[in-house]
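UPF0102 protein HDF17_000511
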Amino acid sequence: MRLGSSWIDVQEWCLGWVDWVAARTLRGAGVAPHLATGLRGERSALFHLRRLGYTVVAQRWTSAKMRGDVDLIGWDGEWLCFVEVKTRTARDMSPAESAVDGDKQRMVRGLARAYLRAFPEENRRRIPVRFDVVSVYLLESGAEFEVFRGAFQWQ
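Predicted structure tokens:
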């Protein structure tokens, strides 16, 4: 188990290094700071979920017919999980997961339905689906995570 975790650590470090080099060599091609923070959080959450045993199959998945995206889609055992990631650089009054409000939940549910339409109909009904939220706190002392499995339901 430790060997697999070490390999994930190496992959995460390499991607971080590539981002660091790109940020210093591609002047003016960057993104807004709050978007960069969100992207760092999503990538950190991806590696954290992999360490927890998730098999991530999609990142920032979109549908041409709907607005928004699903941050991560992955399997946790038999469960197909649609994961919303919220990132903060400090632990303040409101926790990161509180940003996944009713509108965001409706959007993720709609995108989940669109994603599931790619599966054959007879299989689609048998796939157990779960909506997870991951709060990522990028602190001076390192990243901290809170994973909320089954944070909200279809209804």
